[in-house]
Structures are given as C-alpha cells and as structure tokens.
Specification:
The structure holds 2 protein chains of 2 kinds.
Chain A: H1 3-11, E1 15-21, E2 24-29, H2 34-44, E3 48-56, E4 61-69, E5 74-82, E6 89-91, H3 101-111, E7 114-116, H4 138-144, E8 145-148, E9 159-162
Parallel strand pairs in A: 2-5, 6-7
Antiparallel strand pairs in A: 1-2, 3-4, 4-5, 8-9
Chain B: E1 4-8, E2 20-26, E3 29-36, H1 44-48, H2 53-61, H3 70-83, H4 89-117, H5 121-142, E4 151-152, E5 155-156, H6 165-188, H7 190-196, H8 204-209, H9 215-218, H10 226-229, H11 250-277, E6 292-300, E7 303-311, E8 317-323, H12 325-329, H13 333-336, H14 345-350, H15 356-359, H16 377-395
Antiparallel strand pairs in B: 1-2, 2-3, 4-5, 6-7, 7-8
Helix pairs in contact in B: 2-3, 4-5, 4-11, 5-6, 6-11
The chains are: A alpha/beta, B alpha+beta.
C-alpha cells in the first residue's frame, strides 16, 4: 500500500468528493476535520505546504490547500468550502504549519476569510493601503463579475468570477 | 534590557525594492524582526483572469525581471496539467536550456549583490562581468536579453538554430572555466569565510516548519528540488546533482548557488548536445483547454514557483493563483535574523535572494470612481501629450 492509499484509509469519511488525477488528489474536507487532515499530511507524511488558494464560488468561499509530497511529487489538495459568505471563518493551520502564517493573512486580506486561532489575523499586503480599505478585495470582484453555471467545470458547483464581458 | 527599534524602508538607499523591516535591537544584537510588505501594486492574478491562456503566459513573464522564464514555465505546466498535454521532446530540451540559463544569470546576479552588500565590490564586478555572456546567449536563442517570450502551451515559441550552437558552446566553455574559478574563490577566500560563516543561520527544522524552498532550504540540509522530485521538461533526461549543504548560514547559501551554477552548465551542455541530434516539432497544437484545475511548478533560481489554474472550458482561466518562492522564504527572517549583530542583518536579509515584485504580485490600488479595469492608459497618455504641446505652444 503506498503513502496516498494509507492517507485516504486513515482519513476515512473525513474526505469526500475526491478527484484523482495524475499525481494530484483534490478532495473536500470539513472545517472541523481540517486540522486533523493537515496534521497527518504535514507531520505524519512529511508533506510541505506549497500554498493555499482562496476562491469565491456562487454558493460560498473556498480554500484549496496544496500539500506537496516531495518524495513522490504528488500533490494533496484539501478543499474547505465556507457557505457563510457574510462571516466566513475557518480554523487556522498555523499552530501546525508555521509557514501558513502569511498565506492565511493574504487570504484574509483578499477574501475576508477569518482564520480562527491565527497568531496575527491582520491584512498582509493592504495593511497600510493608501485607500484604507474597509472591506475585502472580493467585493470589488463581484461588482464586475458574472457567473458561471459550474457544470461545465466538472465540479458541479457554480461560482462567480471577475471577468470583462 | 532596553529594546530599540530600527526602521529600514520602505524606501531606503540600500534596498532595491520597496519593503519595510523593523529590527528590534538590544544594544548591537537583533532580538526580533517585523516585516511589512504591500508597497508594490501589481494585480497580476486579477488581470490574468481577463486574459486568454496564451496572454496569461506573457503577463506572468512580467511578474519578475529575473524569473522571466520560471513564471511562464510554471504557468504552462499548470495549463498542461489540466489536460495532461504532452510536449515534443525537442521543446522539452529547449525549455530546460532556457530555464537553466536563467538560473545561472540569477545566481550570478545575487552573488554580485551579496559581494556588494558586504563591501566586497571586486566579487560584484567579476561576477557581473561573467553574467554578461549569459545574457548574450539568451539574445542568441530568443532575440531578447530578458523577457524571452519562449513558452507556449504545448511547447516553445522559438527553435534553437543549429548554426548558433557552436557560439553558445563557446560562451559556455568560457563561463565554465570562470565559474570553477569563482567557486574556488568563494570557498577559499578568508574574507568571505570570516564575514559570512555562521551568519544568519536557518536550521533544518525551521526550514521545514516555514516550508522554505530552493537554495534557502537546501543550504539547511533539506534536499527538496522540484527538478529531481517532480521532473518536468527534460530534467528526467539529463544528469545533474542536487546540491545540499548543512549549515544553513549565509556562507553555505553562497557556496550552494555557485555549485548550482556549475551543475546548470552541465545540464545546458547536455541539452545543446541533444539539440544537435533530436529533431522534430517544437509545439503541439493545443486548440482548447478542458474544464478542470491544474497545478504547475518549476524550480526557479530562488525556489519552487507555484501556479494554480482553474478552467471552465473557455479560453481564459477563472482563477490563476501565483505563489513565488520569496513568499515562503521571506518569513524565515523571523528565525534567521534573531541573535545576529545589526551589521549582519543586511546580508542575512539578502541571503534568501528576496524578490518583492514576485511576493506582491496580486495587490492593486482600486479607485471606486475610476475602476482600473476601465482606465484607458492610451487616452491618458494622449491627453498628457496634448497638454504639454499646448503649454509649449502657449509659451512661445
């Protein structure tokens, strides 16, 4: 049994909507299970956190973490979906992965997602922005964005994105 | 204990780019450091969502003047990852050739700057002199000394002319000899050794905890290198050694980069040999990108460049995430700067080869009354020209 199979067996039903691609695994994780999954990936398997991507979808916000297993070149990508767009909150993984501090601050900056238990939950790039931004950057996107049906993306989830018509 | 704060930046004669550091010092010793970024407004991630896939490659090429192959390479890898697109073998060698040339010129640029920062200007002038033939090689291959415009989804844009290979090899032979000399200088010079040994140490555990990449982590004994761990392009077809050192200080980071240059020369030599014999297409015709998501990585000179692209089946990405290596390497200052004298702070800050243009690729200034998406730069330029013309005519 290889490492990835051991991981999926250990995590059991904490993982859903798994998409397997060549050397890539995308899967959904609930907010309450996130730290356990990250702990297994980072500490037990020795994966490295490359980064995390914030995204806005039609029904909520999404954070996609990218963990690289450098021995095999496989990427494990847990995805957390936050449905409450008005007060988006997710557990911080900084207590497990120190390197996530700036990554989470940047997501907070742009997407307004608050990370619980983050040691320094403040803006990263727009801390002293000349326009003293009061709201996350994503509100700007939605004002000029349009929507995608989502079904064509193969993810069965419609989401909104900024794009010139 | 009295703690004083020394502000450096955001605009400071010693800093090439705008960044702000606050050193907390007890006497001469740095006890803590705070960093603030966000002084450069780029907006690349957002702009990319309004461009086609091919236009995005040109856009990300302009994230950084030094990594102007690494970002496009990671970008095309991400797009190709969506559909598992195969690359012609000749294009794979050309991509590797250009990528390794970039590694040489970036490492030499850093080495010169490091020499300059510690007052060793002889090293700076030598190394930058030897960087010049590398830029000439770029000009021979792509027509440009920087921003080469070589990468395409499915291959490369320009072939390497077989007639130019002897010229490239001639430059490479010269560079090889000089790099061996520089490697000996860096390892034997008592000035460099006494100035840099034991300065700004990043331990193995800290490098892992902060997820540092590239020379920053490899100098601390962490043997991660995308070129070997997840080989793309022709990296699984050439022989090279991943350099790993153990001490994690600035000296090891310097030695590691020089040794990597020598390895890059070896790789380029193999690529040029193969390009003499391997014939065929350089570009697979990719007509459309399927819906889905893709991850593209490349071992840039500073570490792993990461691009994530999500497609909905149209000709534009709906999300394009870029993470430059400096974004994960800069936070390691928190540990590497602690306990060092103030005089060593600058070279320690420079030791990860930080690039703030890459780090701050996503922020932009938004004016609610005048959205940047609707700003017509050409119109503004014409209006300014007209105003100046009227002023000149009025003064006559």
């Amino acid at each position: 049994m290889d490492k990835s199979e051991r991981f999926f067996e250990a995590m059991g039903d904490k993982i859903s909507n798994r998409i397997n691609k060549k050397k890539r695994f995308y899967f959904n994780v609930k907010n309450e299970d996130l730290r356990e999954v990250v702990n297994y990936l980072f500490k037990t398997m020795g994966c490295r956190l490359s980064t995390a991507t914030g995204m806005e979808m039609y029904h909520g916000l999404e954070i996609l973490y990218h963990f690289s297993d450098d021995n095999t070149g496989i990427y494990f990508c847990p995805r957390v979906i936050i449905k409450d767009k008005d007060h988006p909150k997710v557990k911080s993984i900084v207590p497990i992965v120190k390197g996530a501090e700036w990554i989470e601050r940047e997501i907070f900056d742009f997407w307004g997602i608050e990370f619980e238990d983050h040691p320094r939950m403040e803006r990263l790039l727009a801390l002293h922005h000349p326009q003293n931004l009061k709201e996350p950057y994503r509100f700007r996107r939605s004002s000029i964005g349009n929507s995608c049906s989502g079904e064509s993306c193969g993810l069965k989830e419609p989401y909104r994105f900024g794009r010139e018509s | 204990m009295t703690i004083n704060k020394i502000p450096i930046g955001p605009f400071h004669p010693l800093l090439e780019e705008a960044e702000y550091f606050e050193l907390k010092v007890d006497g001469e010793t740095v006890v803590d450091i705070d960093m603030e970024i966000g002084w450069m407004h780029r907006g690349h991630e957002f702009i990319s969502e309004m461009k086609t896939f091919t236009q995005s490659i040109y856009l990300v090429e302009r994230i950084c003047g030094i990594c102007s192959t690494s970002h496009p390479l990671a970008c095309v890898h991400a797009i190709e990852d969506i559909d598992n697109i195969e690359i012609p073998i000749r294009a794979r060698y050309i991509r590797t050739l250009v990528g390794e040339l970039e590694r040489i010129h970036s490492h030499l640029l850093w080495l010169g700057l490091a020499g300059h920062f510690i007052g060793y200007d002889t090293l700076w002038m030598w190394v930058w002199k030897y960087r010049e033939p590398v830029l000439q090689m770029f000009e021979i291959i792509s027509g440009n000394r920087n921003h080469y415009g070589m990468m395409r989804v499915g291959g490369v844009a320009k072939d390497v002319d077989p007639v130019s290979i002897p010229d490239l090899k001639k430059n490479l032979d010269m560079l090889d000899k000089k790099m061996v000399m520089v490697a000996n200088v860096v390892r034997d010079d008592p000035v460099l050794r006494s100035r840099l040994k034991g300065v700004g140490v990043l331990s193995h555990d800290d490098a892992v905890a902060y997820c540092a990449t590239g020379p920053t982590s490899r100098a601390s004994g962490v043997p991660w290198d995308v070129r070997r761990d997840e080989p793309t392009d022709a990296y699984d077809l050439v022989d090279f050694e991943v350099i790993v050192l153990q001490n994690g200080d600035v000296y090891d980071k310097m030695v590691l980069r020089v040794l990597e240059v020598i390895e890059s020369v070896k790789i380029i030599r193999q690529c040029l040999e193969k390009l003499k014999t391997v014939q065929g297409s350089i570009l697979n015709n990719v007509k459309e990108i399927s819906p889905g998501e893709g991850i593209g990585i490349y071992e840039a000179p500073r570490g792993e460049v990461f691009h994530y692209i999500r497609s909905d089946g149209t000709n534009r990405p709906i999300r394009h995430k870029v993470r430059a290596p400096s974004f994960v390497n800069i936070p390691t200052y928190t540990v590497s700067c602690k306990g060092i004298p103030v005089a060593d702070a600058l070279i320690t800050l420079a030791s990860v080869d930080p690039c703030y243009c890459c780090t701050e690729r996503s922020l932009k200034v938004v004016n609610k009354e005048n959205d940047p998406c609707s700003i017509d730069l050409l119109k503004i330029s014409r209006e300014k020209t007209e105003r100046i013309r009227r002023e000149i005519n009025g003064s006559k």
